[in-house]
Amino acid sequence: MKLKMQVNRVAIAAVVLLFGSAFWGCGIEKDYATPQRKLIESYLTRNSLKATITADSVYVVKAGNTLTPPPTEVAESGDVVVFYFAAYTFASAPATTPYYTNKRWLAATLPNKPNLEYWNFDPIRTKLGDSEILNSIESALLSCRKGDSLAAFFTSDITYGGLAMGVVPANTALMMVLTIDDVIKQ
Question: To which H or E segment does residue 39 belong?
């Protein structure tokens, strides 16, 4: 009888642990975006960088335009934007080397000496509103002009949704440096 009671207690405890952890853990997700936003804002303030914040909560710092005078037409939904980029992880500042880039000269300087034979160094060509790139990157590209250089800061919830992606750990904020090669009005 004692053995049967002990087995029942163990079974009850197991059920309570199983369903209790499911009940108490249900719907509780760690908020990574808020502290990442604070780190991004702190970095921007420390470096006296003025950012605009898009509707998707992307922080965009326009670094300037390489053309004199800069073109007046800006990218809108439906336009094609052609750009080069370098992608960095972001903790309290951007990583010192990108984890990926389509800038050949920058890829050649990477310390791990990747086999560049398999990298694509063509510019990205995307139609805004109808593309396969992340919505957050599209959001950063809206209102850019040919010749613009910009830095865009992303919290993990608007990039990979908290998933690990290649060499990017889960729940990691990102920064991308974008150079706009062309804006083709549609």
Answer: helix 33-46
* CA distances (Å), origin 128, targets 78, 87, 113: 5, 19, 33
Nearest to 180 by CA among 133, 153, 135, 146: 146
Q: Which residues is 60 bridged to in the sheet?
A: 52, 152
**21-35, 39-53, 129-143: segment of lowest average pLDDT:** 21-35
Write down the pTM of the prediction. Answer: 0.80
CA distance 161 to 171: 8
By residue count, the chain amounts to: 186
- The residue ranges of DSSP E strands in the chain, in sequence order, are 52-53, 59-65, 80-90, 100-101, 124-127, 148-154, 173-184
Nearest to 31 by CA among 140, 173, 135, 138: 173
Residue 2 reports pLDDT greater than 60:
no
Q: What is the mean pLDDT of residues 14-40?
A: 63
**Per-residue pLDDT band at 17 (split at 50, 70, 90):** very low
